[in-house]
Amino acid sequence: MRLKGKRVVITGGAGGLGNRISALMLKKGVRLTIVDRAKELPFDADLITGDLSTQEGIFAIGQTLNELNPDILVNLAGMQYFGPVEQQDANSVVLSYMLNLVAPVMLAQAVIPAMRDRGTGQIVNIGSIFGSINFAHFATYSSAKAGLKGFSESLRRELNGSGVGVTYIAPRAVKTPLNSEKVMQFAELTHMNMDEPDMVAKRIVKSIIADKKDVYLGFPESFFVRLNAVLPRIVDGSLAANDKIARKLFHTQ
Q1: Confidence (pLDDT) at 227
Q2: Pairing between strand 46-49 and 7-11?
Q3: Which residues, listed in sequence order, are joined to residue 47 by a DSSP beta bridge?
Q4: In a domain, 1, yes or no
Q5: Residue 250 carries which DSSP code?
Q6: Contact, 145 vs 128, CB < 8 A?
Q7: CA–CA distance, 142 with 46 (Å, rounded to integer)
Q8: What CA–CA distances, in Å, run from 218 to 58, 90, 235, 239?
Q9: Which domain, by its residues, includes 81?
Q10: Residues 116-141: pLDDT tens digits?
């Protein structure tokens, strides 16, 4: 797919990973629109400032996108909670599912009708390896990303033959401000693989251009995705040591 001249919308496009994807897209000659909480952008693109944490906010942004009529929608915006699930407050639980799952679904609903009418378009959902290997202490994040993976697969089948493609991309951990101090401490103690955002951004843009269906970044994580799908109890054992480290970080048994 040639990106030059395409109208591309990226949610969270001003963030640590998003601004790198945005820069690469601009180099490809796209007409770029960013959906973000930011008041201004460090690059030349249109900005929709909105709230993806509420149904009303998502609906309002969806109406704007419907009028904008993008060729490509990249659902990147999200949040991450790390800790015992019983310690996550109710507002954070709702926010996690709204940003990581509900917003991508509702924004896809907003842009699909025009894409169907044109017979062309692409929905790109940025998930996570954690959506296929559901890590302890990342319960709401992992389950929301698992939902996004399932939505992407279901939507792809629903849109089959329409000319509208669906791409699901699952990076492993990325070195961005999304990671809290506790996450970085956990990553160091468990020797978690963490990728540089520039490399991940390049792989994401390359996958969009190639109109890939499912992309899992990183080895051995991509192998464990397949293993977890068929033999999850084996993966339980391999993650047990990491889970003990996480419990010590939060002083739980």
Answers
A1: 84
A2: unpaired
A3: 34
A4: no
A5: T
A6: yes
A7: 31
A8: 32, 33, 17, 17
A9: 7-249
A10: 999 999 999 999 999 999 889 999 99
pLDDT given for residue 143 in this prediction: 97
The secondary structure element, H or E, covering residue 46 is: strand 46-49
Gap between the Cα atoms of 98 and 104, Å rounded: 9
- Classified as helix, coil or strand, 69 is coil
Token representation of residue 251: 């002083």
> What's the CATH code of the domain at 148?
3.40.50.720
Asked, for residue 114, whether it belongs to a domain, the answer is yes
Closest to 145 measured CA to CA, from 159, 155, 135 = 135
Residue closest to 11 by CA, chosen among 96, 66, 73: 73
End-to-end CA distance of the chain: 51
96 Cβ contact list (under 8 Å, min separation 6): 79, 80, 81, 88, 140, 141, 144
> How far is residue 215's CA from residue 203's CA, in Å, rounded to a whole number?
9
